[in-house]
Model the fold of this input.
Amino acid sequence: MRRWWRIDPLGARQVLSGFLLAVASAMAVVVLASLAVGRLDVRDAFGLAGAAAFLALWMTLVARYFLVGVYVNDTGLRLRYTFSTRTLPWSRVTGFVVRPAELLGEPTARDACWVRTSDGVVETPVQRRSRTAGWRKDIGPVLRTEDFDRMVARLDAELAAARRGQAGGGAVVR
Done:
């Protein structure tokens, strides 16, 4: 199976970014319709080109932010961040641990799920909601405690299935 399944449920930020993507798409349609209808002078053409470039950049960033999370399939684990994606084969994953997320090498107020690999540990972008005062970093979904614990349990189950040779993906737990 090649399809990647999202392991973490969509958070409020992903819903908001999906809404912003829909708004940007509607704005892009308006800009394209403006280009298609009527005559344009040079000033208007440059203005619409600037608006189209801004919309393209905005839509790209919002779409990337919408996709931030943890994904699995039978070949491995994929960690999607806003500006990068990291894929780890199951053979390199040794387990999962929950510990404080780090910002500039220092622990923050929220816990994150960390992937233990044969080369060290990798922080996932998914964090557990916390009411503790302190530094926070907003790089991805912030889940309720129950959803976060369910995600970690699902990751452990996927790793166990991969070790047995029957990794499955399947329905996303929400």
